[in-house]
């Protein structure tokens, strides 16, 4: 088994933090670093902490945000004055960028975690920042997991951000448009960080192998093992280093192979938040793949939801809705298939119900498509909301109660089953809507035949009006 050699010297990336040093480095920063300096990091710290970038040049990816003179780059370099919300998946550099802001000289830096801080903590920081501002010192307030702040906690920041008392740097893995109040959004730039591509993650891994903060060349990682680590990391740089560190601990003769990686970790993480934008994005992609008749893509998104722990009842409901919304009468059996899958979910549950969900997904994806059903009901409801109601024709009204016939209710109604064709000429809609067509079959699937039949039926029914 390979044992990493000790690391010495200034290997950290954490700048000055005031109240919460552990927020960035999990307790690995040594207390009391000077503002703008790079503190020591315990050699026993996790590899991901030791390898955290110390300069912008070491940051991998996010070139779209860090180009010359961009707002985020100016902020990191100490020249920017705009508050920013860093939004993106785990392991893309949100905390790293906050670290770099912290190490910028001349600014006071305070870090709060939304997991533990309250309104009282926020107000204390603001009061301290107001005092420092009087002496020409700017305060940068970093809030990690800002989406976990309540509305009142976020409200407490507004005036201070707007008046420039604090320069806010907030980080979140959830879409801020869902989790951050609109007034705070309008006062901040939103910087969306992207998951690292395969080349970026591979660079992170190889740097850790070669750099003295990591393994200093004392560990060999085969190209195939790097590929496996890249695949398993899902674009998360921190995750890739965690996998590498676990594999190094299991390595024989200081060589990491695919087999070593497999022993260390047997499943790739799935980024999916059941209450945030990933939930909506993956669900949207799932439905759009079915609508687009790509069964393979639909199965991929179904698998992502299932592996991430999505409620199978939610998936079943989406399939039932989709069966009518995007298939409808082009394949009347689609609704039956989706409803059957929903029943299997209720009666059987996971893991077996995944088969019924997959079967229904394939059925719907490969079925002919038509949105004529949703178009028909939406058009009919629009007419009703616009006042297109009218009186029910008297011959269609209930004529079973005493005195009904005296009012003319039910009089003249023609019973369709008395006709050999099973359909008769008769007015059914209110006078205002005679001749109004709502349902327009497409030429797809069963609707090809239905179009001709519907045309004949309308001709017979409306022949007497």
From TrEMBL:
Q: Does the keyword Heme apply?
A: no
GO MF terms, alphabetically ordered: ATP binding; ATP hydrolysis activity; DNA binding; enzyme activator activity; single-stranded DNA helicase activity
Which InterPro entries does this UniProt record tie to the protein?
Answer: AAA+_ATPase, AAA_assoc_2, AAA_ATPase_RarA/MGS1/WRNIP1, ATPase_AAA_core, DNA_pol3_clamp-load_cplx_C, MgsA_C, P-loop_NTPase
Family, as annotated = Belongs to the AAA ATPase family. RarA/MGS1/WRNIP1 subfamily.
In the UniProt record, the signal sequence range is: none
Entry keyword set: ATP-binding, Nucleotide-binding
Q: What is this protein called?
A: AAA family ATPase
Q: Which GO terms describe its biological process?
A: DNA synthesis involved in DNA repair; DNA-templated DNA replication
Record region (Disordered): 24-46
Entry-linked Gene3D superfamilies: 1.10.8.60, 1.20.272.10, DNA polymerase III clamp loader subunits, C-terminal domain (1.10.3710.10), P-loop containing nucleotide triphosphate hydrolases (3.40.50.300)
Q: Which organism is it from?
A: Dietzia natronolimnaea
AAA+ ATPase domain span? 80-195
